[in-house]
Request: fold
Amino acid sequence: MKRKPYLCVLLATLAAIILFAVFFSNSSGEEVFQVSDCGVLSIEEQMPAEYTKHIIEDTAAYTLSKINLHASDGAVISALFRVPKTEEPLYGAVILPGATVSKEGAQHLAGELAELGYASIALDQRNLCVIDFENDYQLFASGDVPVEYLMLSDALHAVDFLITQPGVDAEKIIIIGESNGGRIAIIAAAMHPKIRMVIGISTSGYNTEEQIPRNTPDNMRKFYYSIDPDTYLPLLPPKKLVLMHANNDSIIPIELAERTYQKAGEPKAFHVVSGNAHGYSKQMQPVLKKELLSLRKAR
Reply:
């Protein structure tokens, strides 16, 4: 299965893409990561991740299962899968928590999604989504797979898991991420054809085009573009980008989120709430509900 964005197809011929692409494969050889000359990452997967599942809670309102996704590099990604008990159609959501936040820490949000008819899978991301840019670049430069690329692969596998679950509408999958998790979510939404909406909470792109000097070596330029959500914004439409941000967020200033939003094409929405919270807050509940209900009603 290929996860190949189409931006570079618009910018160059296929031959040129192949000529300038950087190729990586994980140790098992089951996934090939490619970075084009314009810095767009694509992933070619030979087979989906295997998983194990067992129920740990079974209430009148929902079931909660422990999921172990077995990635092709040998890692086991732990997740929680919450399914509401309802007679209505089920929709699917992948939740990517922010840095240092576990899958358990995302269960309040998962519970709210369940009330709206969404089955969700929340991941314990590698390094709990703490990103080491220097180490990832060194891996990239040496021909190894950066951890961020593996985080992205895990998110895509979580989508694949969702769409195979009984009762889940495979045509209305969303991905929602907080902070660093939101950055991974935006890139994943550009890659996976089943994702209909991406919700980024307290997140932004890196504005790589203005942050790195013009004389930056090509290899380094490609890497930093490849991990910047801003690079993938042209690939999102017709999928909707929704950003939610506190006006006094001290971790990722709102100005950075506004800049990313301005770069994005329609359909999109930007919701600002008061306060200094970083991550999902109670003030975001009404707009989250509004956006999710609107997707459910869409054809």
In short: Residues 6-20 have pLDDT under 50 and may be disordered. The first helix runs from residue 7 to 11. The two ends are 26 Å apart (CA to CA).
